[in-house]
Amino acid sequence: MHGLIRLADTAELLTTEPASNAVRHTKGPAALRLRWRGGVPRIGTWDAAPEPPEPPPKLGDLVDAEGGRGVALVSACADVWGWQRLARNGNPGKYVWCELVAAQVAWSSQRELTS
Fold this sequence. Notes:
Layout: H1 8-25, E1 30-37, E2 40-47, H2 70-77, E3 80-85, E4 94-99, H3 102-114
Helix pairs in contact: 1-2
């Protein structure tokens, strides 16, 4: 067993929030990229809107909000996140990414137990 199952819900949230924002809030193409490097998954979403994401509000301010929680959830659940302007196939846009460093810790711990 890889020891990462406890991070599945967090990884799913970190994938679906930016991807749904890309589809819901932009016109044009969107793309999802998942990468595993050095035991750390990086989840990235590209969309055709070059504007930066809104700064994340405090989660406590969003208790009764029906929307606007996506970036705040990513900020709270990811170990690190960011964005950059990035053209793709000639389309201007941005790439929003986050990393789940806790996966590296879980993976390394599990490997030590099975060695």
